[in-house]
Amino acid sequence: MALMSSTGRAEITKRLITEKGFVAVAVEADWPDAYRVNRYVRGINDDATARDALAGFKRFPIWMWRNTDVLDFIEWLRTHNTGLPHGDEAKIPAGGQSLIPLLRFRLAAPSLLIDIIRLSELEYIREADGALHIGALTREAALETSSLVHHRYPILRDTSKGVADPVVRNWGTVGGNLAHADPANDHPATMLALGARVVAEGPDGKRVIPIDAFFTDSPFVTTLQPNEILTEIRIPAPTERSGGAYFKLERKVGDYAIAGVAASLTLDPDGLVTYAGIGLTNVGPSPIKARNAEQALHGKPLDDAHIHQAADLAAAASQPGSDRRGTAEYRRAMVRTLCVRALRKALARAREGEEL
Prior knowledge:
Elements: H1 9-18, E1 27-28, H2 31-41, H3 47-53, E2 59-60, E3 62-64, H4 70-79, E4 90-91, H5 99-104, E5 112-115, E6 125-128, E7 131-135, H6 140-145, H7 147-152, H8 154-161, H9 166-171, H10 174-179, H11 187-194, E8 197-202, E9 205-210, H12 211-214, E10 229-236, E11 242-250, E12 257-267, E13 273-281, E14 288-289, H13 291-297, H14 304-317, H15 328-352
Parallel strand pairs: 3-5, 4-5
Antiparallel strand pairs: 1-2, 6-7, 7-10, 8-9, 8-10, 11-12, 12-13, 13-14
Helix pairs in contact: 13-14, 14-15
């Protein structure tokens, strides 16, 4: 059964909650066990037995959108023009890799999940109109292995390769990484450095949002409306003498970053900086764009003195706290070190067309 933007929607909505043969029913909040419980319950035909089987679990329904058409889903959102069912307590996971830890540690308890991973129209990587277009449901693994990304946008490959581990990258999506707005996620800093834009779609139409206007000063909060979804990321195509790089420090592979820095540069024929973008990972309550560091590089040659000046300003822009990953002083020092490395790597790529 699929959710369709046609007649009988009320009946479908009712069946979503009650029909045990649907994709998922009320399950416990620990995501790995959710599907185990679901497989068990789907074999039960009477409601009373199902309720008994789920007794004691913290439950929420999962609705899986089974159509592949984005417009159908937008139309469905239009019928809920006051927002999603269950309001702000509803979540729309894609790969779910950012949401899983929050559910596991009881840091989030949404009353409804709407899974849109089958919207295959949102899985693509292509260049057009002077930009790289990435569908919001494109997997991290696809970005990591894309020949186009490898040769033209190596900073994106740097970023995707550093996301968690291969299992997570096979499920996690680029759009989900951004829309979750976790300051510890890797893509926000890179998109800030690149000057990306994101496309949001909902019942009121389509909006193109500059990435620095997409994030807010609060963690896990974006300027997406409750009945909008992120559908695409647009990154300006690289020009001649441009390059970028992403570096992060982590305690172990797959851990969140102690600190991370993304840098993107464009040089003029004389080697002076005409564009500089610097984004910071996990050193503040939200992704940080190091504007003072960027401005300090404009019109300057990228020699060691200017690189270290920008790194000092990037460290000053960071707002780290002290936690088990290190003290605030240590993490600020790591921003300085990583910024130097990212700028040097970006410079090498800009000068030599280096890809690796």
